[in-house]
Amino acid sequence: MSNQKKRTSEIRKSMPLLPIGTVIQLTDLTARQIRYYEEHDLIRPHRTEGNQRMFSLNDVDQLLEIKDLLEQGLNIAGIKKVFEMKKEENEHNKIGKELSEDKIRSILREEMKIAQSRLQKPSLRYGDVNRLYQ
What we know:
Keywords: DNA-binding, Repressor, Transcription, Transcription regulation. This protein is mostly helical.
């Protein structure tokens, strides 16, 4: 999937579209349970001007995950820890991706230097290489 499609998909999943009644039907949780998870910052639904909670598909996924973790015997503190670890892992993966792109640029630079030192034409045009460094 291309980056643009991933971003578009993520935007759609994060759009607050569902009222609490629909979320109750989708998750089999009570309104009280959902409000409790919100109080503990496990979910953060969007609020309308009238202060009505509106949930995204990501919120519903998060609630279903909370429900599964509770059924496995975790308490709220344990669930918070699991979510923190996932957040750290996601941030680490983003950093890892950036580093790998930097590594690729570094290798490309070295190959260009070698090609130039052998008085060979580089395989990439200057404009193409220049875009990689920006």
